[in-house]
């Protein structure tokens, strides 16, 4: 997986996590939430306002989330497909401090990051995160147009919560907010669970391979 965004240079999202091949659904409800209004939210709204589908809450990332997320990201199994190792608390705070800026210094990308919580759990624990790196020309605090924006998605769910369809549901929630923006993801060819999620989002594999990962795209 390409390295996570840590600098003002054009970013790639966080690597995808190794979820089990056939995750069980979180509930019998459909993947997507209620139909959206005709006017999609702007990137500025998306990076500031939580998303909620009744089962999951996606909180816009803050530096303070590092305290919880360092434990979620601690299991070495999360890096089976991507390489690397678990971040320390200091490293995670540093990473999040850069990501919460919201866009690259040259204003060619929006950085949208959410921490995933289980809404119905009494403790509402943080269980993972989802990223969307949105390239648009020009960047503006307005709804994205399909002909000038691409969003690269990536997701990680902690090992104790895998196999419950959480990553698929969270990715579907974000994808519905971003449409009609073109969606892409870079996925290791052996990562069948992430390929299944990309397929559910309407992506198809392409012939392009970057750093050992195949590019998936909606168009």
Automatic annotation (TrEMBL):
Domain N-acetyltransferase: 56-203
Key words, A-Z: Transferase
InterPro entries xref list: Acyl_CoA_acyltransferase, GNAT_dom, N-acetyltransferase
Ranges for region Disordered: 1-48
Biased segments, Pro residues type: 1-43
Domain of life: Bacteria
Protein's name in the database: Protein N-acetyltransferase, RimJ/RimL family
Lineage of source species: Bacteria, Bacillati, Actinomycetota, Actinomycetes, Propionibacteriales
